[in-house]
Specification:
The structure holds two protein chains of two kinds. Chain A is an alpha+beta fold. Chain A contains three helices and seven strands. In chain A, 49% of the residues lie in helices and 21% in strands. A five-stranded antiparallel beta sheet of chain A has the order 3-2-6-5-4, sandwiched between helices. Chain A is globular and about 50 Å long. Chain A starts with 13 loop residues before the first strand and ends with a strand. Chain B is an alpha/beta fold. The interface between A and B is large, with 54 and 59 residues.
């Protein structure tokens, strides 16, 4: 049987996560957070961009952590290929104080649980597995609704984003007609 | 694949600087990091060897500003250029929305540029992308050096698919932001 993930157009250039799906993701992470007592939990896409997170931490820290975790996961996938493995679905990193558990969601997203000695790895594994199944369902909905979202908003967003980029890199005075942007001038 | 998070009102994209060893990929990110306004800047993360060669990647998150209430965030990465790290380059390229190919304009680096470009095309194809349609910009770096090949010669050998290309002297910032602007526009045009 062909899954929704298999039917995802490889040339699709953007994935739009709607408000309803974001709420479902937040609820799923919140529940996992409560059950595991984790320090924080993140959901990343495979490029390392942070879709959602729960727990303490600053945005900048999460962004860097996301890039490193996605890089580590992508690197382990290449290792799997060299070892003729299908994939390493789960990664565990253990430190003196914190442990990091990473599990893939259909090879599109990464669920990351950061926890300390108060939570047991076995429990985190079982609960993360259950959360991953819920997130797989949400991912399917995101993909099913992607085309509708795209038709509704991507065109307008694209035009506005191109204008913003021109404004940011422009040496000229900003166009007074672009009042809806809050862009910074570079360099 | 770019990510649009409607609830958080964010657009995310990943841009990878690719090219042979010592062509100036890291220098591009260092210049961008040094010149962008403080309020759009995060730390430049470099995973390098003891001799300052890139081991895994350099990473610079950029906050471009808001458009229609949506914040545009780009993540800039470099790959390690040394031949040894071919599989690492595959890992870093994973999920990229656009690529800047940084070529070293010096005559004796032409073969290295060609090899790296072929590898990039191969890796993109393996990741299910159509090279001809994928957002890509080329930068000819070190064009100030006496050993640099003329731009028409570089075009003939390297830019056969005729993507936008820029001459640069990345070490003093020339051409760096023109390149970034071009790839940013190509990426958002694909949203």
């Amino acid at each position: 049987m062909v899954s929704v993930i298999d039917r995802l157009d490889p040339d699709l250039s953007s994935l739009i996560v709607g408000e309803e799906e974001s709420e479902s993701i937040a609820a799923c992470l919140h529940r996992l957070m409560g059950e595991t007592g984790a320090s924080y939990i993140m959901l990343l896409d495979r490029a390392g961009q942070v879709l959602a997170w729960q727990g303490e931490g600053h945005r900048a820290e999460m962004t860097h952590l996301g890039a490193l975790l996605a890089g580590t996961y992508a690197s382990s996938r290449e290792m799997a290929r060299l070892l003729k493995e299908d994939n390493f679905r789960v990664l565990v990193q253990e430190g003196m104080k914190e442990k990091v558990f990473t599990e893939t969601v259909e090879d599109r997203w990464l669920l990351v649980v950061v926890f300390d000695h108060q939570a047991h790895l076995g429990l985190v594994k079982v609960l993360a597995k259950r959360a991953t199944q819920s997130l797989t369902g949400i991912l399917h909905v995101v993909i099913e609704r992607n085309q509708t979202h795209r038709l509704k908003m991507a065109g307008e967003m694209r035009r506005a984003a191109v204008d913003t980029i021109d404004l940011i890199f422009s040496q000229d005075e900003p166009d007074p007609g672009t009042g809806s942007t809050e862009a910074k001038r570079w360099p | 694949m770019a990510l649009i998070n409607v609830a958080a009102k964010e657009i995310h994209g990943k841009i990878v600087y690719y090219g042979p060893g010592l062509c100036g990929k890291t220098t591009n990110l260092q210049i961008i990091h040094g010149k962008i306004p403080q309020n759009g800047r995060s730390d430049l993360l470099s995973i390098a060897t003891e001799t300052e060669r890139t081991l895994f990647f350099d990473f610079l998150p950029l906050d471009l500003g808001k458009v229609h209430g949506f914040t545009i965030r780009f993540h800039l990465y470099t790959v390690p250029g040394q031949v040894l790290y071919e599989r690492t380059r595959v890992a870093v390229l994973n999920g990229a929305d656009g690529v800047v190919f940084v070529a070293d304009a010096q005559r004796d680096r032409l073969a290295d540029n060609l090899q790296s470009l072929r590898e990039l095309a191969h890796n993109l194809t393996n990741q299910g992308k159509r090279v001809i349609e994928f957002p890509m910009v080329m930068q000819y770096n070190k064009t100030d050096l006496p050993s640099a090949l003329p731009t028409p010669v570089l075009d003939r050998y390297l830019n056969t698919i005729k993507v936008p290309r820029y001459e640069a002297v990345a070490v003093n910032g020339a051409g760096v932001f023109e390149t970034l602007r071009a790839i940013s526009k190509l990426v958002v045009n694909k949203l």
